[in-house]
């Protein structure tokens, strides 16, 4: 069996509720109980960007092109400010609309920093929109036909997968990696419970198409499998060989889009978990943190700092990646340059993703809505990591010139950065 893979059958006791929870798992379920008063996930009015647009969508005030499915999708992406170039295609049946998904009909994912949109030809539009405190909010609706108006249903079924160990038990982003059979059904599953830029590229992309990644080496994208007496046998599945690219807005499932999606998903899941843990701790302490919570708080600070500063980022392949030109142009269009012209969105792409290794997701409402005192603890830890001296061995991957650039960018572009302008 290939390294890192686990048979789906091994997961059945857990999926069926037959496993006995450990103390750590019990704690996870406690802090992530969505119905606890401090979370009240289902009754609080969400403040995510898509919820704010639903009235305009359903009334028709959000003028969209209904001449075809593709036209509607393109106009909706523009209205949501999601670049079509972020498109990635998944052909494994790991979605609510699994009956429509196959190598002949892949599902497309598009995203910006706050909204993730799923589309299957002939199916519904799926939305994951990030609330600054509650995390992911899920909607699904039909593409309107014959003048009918769409009705965006807040989906509870999505929570079956989007609020478990894959998302740290909180409402978050799932990126499944499986070995799909010829029809797209999962034969084997791996990297369960893991999301983020630290995952080696060789363990990613299972069930996904990848374009622009010819030098990635061995990975689990662009293939299907079958089980035989000799074990798992794989067959190449080149993008566009079993479907027509013209049904999608762009003819790419670019490796750079995959890497950005993975980074953002890891960030979202970690920060949403922090929101839930902090609210639970404050509720348990009746408005203050108990001494027993401080170790957990420090662990959260340390983990988020490491993630923000790409301390565990998996290296790019030898020679780097090129990245789709249109995606790079549209991604850089929203950069926040400091006075010297540097920004957190500037690519490196030779050995790692970014020239200045601090996540641009630090600007998002999700991060900025963390309690001020906790956010300041993260800033303080980041400042120590970026200091010229003493050198912080935990962040030795950052060179002195990169640290200096990051100090300048953060001081000028993060409003509450300590000592910032």
Please give a structural write-up.
- This protein is of the alpha+beta class.
- The protein has 2 domains: 5-10 and 36-247, no CATH class; 255-413, no CATH class.
- 29% of the residues lie in helices and 13% in strands.
- It has helices spanning 12-15, 23-31, 54-59, 69-79, 159-162, 255-284, 294-308, 325-332, 365-368, 372-386, 400-413, and strands spanning 5-7, 88-90, 107-111, 115-119, 124-131, 135-142, 153-154, 177-180, 186-190, 223-228, 231-236.
- It has a 6-stranded antiparallel β-sheet with strand order 2-3-4-5-6-7, with helices on one face.
- The longest helix is centred in the middle third of the chain and has 30 residues, at 255-284.
- Residues 1-26 have low confidence and may be disordered.
Question: Cα-atom Rg, whole angstroms?
Answer: 22 Å
Name the helicity range.
25-40%
Number of strands: 11
Given as residue ranges, the uncertain stretches (5+ residues, pLDDT < 50) are 1-26
What profile does the largest beta sheet have? 6 strands, antiparallel
What percent strand?
A: 5-15%
Terminus-to-terminus distance:
55 Å
Q: Could you report the average pLDDT, rounded to the nearest whole number?
A: 89
The helix count comes to 11
Q: Within the largest sheet, what's the order of strands?
A: 2-3-4-5-6-7
Shape: globular
Which sequence of SSEs, written as H and E, runs from N to C? EHHHHEEEEEEHEEEEHHHHHH
Structural class: alpha+beta
Number of domains: 2
């Amino acid at each position: 069996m290939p390294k890192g893979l686990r048979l789906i059958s091994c997961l059945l006791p857990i999926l069926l509720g037959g496993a006995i929870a450990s103390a750590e798992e019990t704690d996870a379920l406690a802090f992530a109980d969505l119905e606890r008063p401090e979370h009240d996930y289902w009754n609080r009015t969400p403040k995510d960007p898509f919820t704010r647009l639903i009235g305009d969508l359903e009334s028709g005030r959000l003028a969209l092109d209904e001449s075809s499915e593709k036209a509607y999708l393109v106009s909706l992406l523009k209205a949501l400010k999601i670049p079509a170039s972020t498109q990635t295609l998944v052909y494994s049946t790991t979605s609510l609309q699994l009956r429509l998904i196959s190598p002949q009909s892949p599902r497309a994912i598009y995203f910006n920093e706050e909204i993730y949109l799923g589309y299957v030809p002939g199916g519904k539009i799926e939305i994951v929109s990030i609330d600054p405190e509650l995390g992911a909010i899920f909607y699904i609706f039909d593409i309107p036909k014959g003048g009918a108006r769409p009705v965006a249903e807040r989906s509870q079924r999505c929570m079956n997968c989007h609020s478990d160990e894959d998302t740290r038990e909180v409402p978050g982003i799932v990126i499944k990696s499986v070995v799909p059979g010829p029809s797209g059904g999962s034969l084997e599953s791996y990297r369960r419970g893991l999301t983020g830029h630290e995952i080696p590229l060789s363990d990613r992309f299972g069930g996904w198409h990848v374009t622009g990644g010819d030098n990635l080496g061995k990975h689990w994208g662009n293939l299907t499998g079958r089980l035989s007496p000799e074990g798992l046998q794989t067959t190449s599945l080149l993008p566009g060989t079993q479907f027509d690219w013209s049904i999608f807005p762009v003819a790419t499932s670019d490796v750079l889009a995959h890497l950005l999606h993975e980074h953002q998903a890891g960030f979202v899941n970690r920060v949403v978990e922090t929101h839930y843990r902090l609210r639970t701790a404050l509720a348990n302490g009746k408005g203050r943190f108990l001494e027993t919570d401080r170790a957990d708080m420090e662990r959260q600070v340390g983990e988020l700092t490491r993630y923000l500063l790409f301390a565990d980022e998996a290296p790019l392949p030898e020679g780097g990646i090129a990245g789709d030109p249109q995606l790079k142009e549209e991604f850089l269009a929203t950069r926040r340059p400091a006075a010297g012209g540097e920004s957190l969105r500037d690519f490196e792409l030779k050995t790692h993703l970014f020239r200045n290794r601090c996540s641009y997701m630090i600007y998002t409402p999700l991060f900025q809505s963390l309690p001020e005192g906790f956010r300041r603890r993260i800033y303080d830890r980041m400042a120590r990591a970026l200091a010229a001296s003493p050198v912080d061995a935990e962040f030795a991957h950052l060179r002195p010139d990169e640290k200096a650039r990051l100090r300048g960018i953060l001081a000028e572009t993060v409003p509450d950065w300590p000592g910032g302008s």
